[in-house]
Amino acid sequence: MASPKLTKIINDDKEFLFQNYGERLQASFVKGDGSYLYDQDNKKYIDFFSGIAVSSLGYSNPALHKAIHSQIDRGVIHTSNKFYNQEQIEAAKLISNTSFPGKSLFVNSGAEANETAIKLARRYGLSINKKKFKIITFTDSFHGRTFGAMSATAQPKIHEGFGPIVPGFIYAPFNNVKAIRKLLKKDKHIAAVMLELVQGEGGINVADGDFVKEIFDTCNQKGILTIIDEIQTGIGRTGLTYVYQHFNITPDILTLAKGLGGGIPIGAIHAKNYLSEYLPAGTHGTTFGGNHLACAAVIAVLSEIKKNTFISNVNTLSDHFFERLKKIKQKTGYIKSIRGLGLHIGIELAEDGNKLVDEALSEKLIINCTAGNVIRLMPPLNISMSAVDEGMNILEKLILKYGEIYENTQNKLR
């Protein structure tokens, strides 16, 4: 039963807002501290979701708060991309220093970053051949909800009801070496391959090494661009600063957002230097992209990620998560598989997982379900070990509870 405060919030939400997010979960958060959130009734929750991998440094992080407050206190939140912007330059330097030498273009979201990458790839391909504009993407991918990014997303349910999608995308089966080899060999009009190395919305599906090697070897030989979509996986999430670093590859274009600003909206593409000539003045832009406040947040986040112990601590936490989950899996057949990298973890259940998400919230644990039956864990990267165990104790109890119910139901059906 919702409290009076929450009931009013729910009613106002339905009266004044589009209901395009469906029925929201039964909480409204008003305060955060570390890896904890507090709701409208001051109840405390453990956050294993980070606002879809956005709050990379958790809540009330001193370094991020200092950077944001300092920028606001200087009175310059936004000027215009008509002027030089020192924070934008410093943010771009940090991206280049932590990834590969190149140039960055800042936008406002992950969808915008992917739109920019698509435009850049098309401009590049069409400069070679007037028919070279096709882009390969993969089944169960997710690249955003704007028209280009939605069209790149190889999920029919995302396209439904919007009429003709943007042409030029070829959907290939994920992790199928033979299929991608055949496509890249036979079609001479492919400009780029766009790939999530860990598919987030698709169910935390990790790319196979041989599959990635085939793509990069062939693309490098044929002059086809490689775009790695790190909207969800970038900025330390997988136990390295960028997920592509696990695969001994370097993409031509990298797209970033979510954790990049630690909660402040920002997106970016980072591309090898030679590609910048394909987006000259007037070919792309955004009013708010790379504003002073957002870039101050990027500087703070990347500076924290660069600290010597930060990434090693992510991996220590990751090992602990996976070890606990393996032990839970040994106790129940309700867990079909556990997968992921770093603190980007998927738990595939034997049935739909949304009821588990709802009950976890009632137990003051925030988790998520994607692809129907995959529980997605993406806590703040600096979560404490005690908070991990506190949350995992709740999760274990619920998995074992629903596992027993599921197994009893299956036994009755046999």
Describe this structure in words.
The protein has 414 residues and is α/β, with parallel strands linked by helices. It folds into 2 domains: 4-60 and 309-413, Alpha-Beta Complex (Aspartate Aminotransferase, domain 1), CATH 3.90.1150.10; 76-306, Aspartate Aminotransferase, domain 2. Helix content is 41%, strand content 18%. The chain contains 13 helices and 17 strands. It has helices spanning 4-16, 50-53, 62-73, 86-98, 110-128, 147-152, 156-159, 177-186, 209-222, 292-306, 310-331, 354-362, 385-413; strands at residues 29-33, 36-39, 44-47, 102-107, 134-138, 169-172, 190-195, 198-199, 205-206, 225-229, 253-256, 267-272, 335-341, 344-349, 365-366, 368-370, 374-377. The protein has a 7-stranded mixed beta sheet, sandwiched between helices. Strand 1 (29-33) and strand 2 (36-39) form a beta hairpin. The radius of gyration is 22 Å and the shape is globular. The two termini are 37 Å apart. The model has no long low-confidence stretch (mean pLDDT 97).
